[in-house]
Amino acid sequence: MILSSLALTISLLCTATGMVLFKHYYRSHNRADLGFSILLFGAVPVTTFFALRGLSLGFVYMATAATHVLVLGMSHYFLGERIPPRVLPGIMLILVGIILYGFN
Description:
By secondary structure, this protein is an all-alpha fold. The protein has 5 helices and no strands. The longest helix is centred in the N-terminal third of the chain and has 27 residues, at about 1-30. It has helices spanning about 1-30, 30-50, 55-65, 65-80, 90-100. Helices cover about 80% and strands about 0% of the residues. Helix 1 (about 1-30) packs antiparallel against helix 2 (about 30-50) and helix 1 (about 1-30) crosses helix 4.
């Protein structure tokens, strides 16, 4: 279960990092960002497969909602994007939903 949780975490981070790199590519047109983004997106099915070996499909699927929160945070930190206050209730609902689903 620990390895599956680690695989899920890696999968979520690969997805979020790939999205942020693709956003950066769109701004800079740096092909390295595009290539690394595609590489990260390619790793997601493999890491998700290992996550599903020890975790339920429902939990893995629910946890993927965390990528929205990760992309917002990473875009703010690495790309200097502003997080509008109106999205904070949505972030809270996503996190509470994942936590509540995880305890069932």
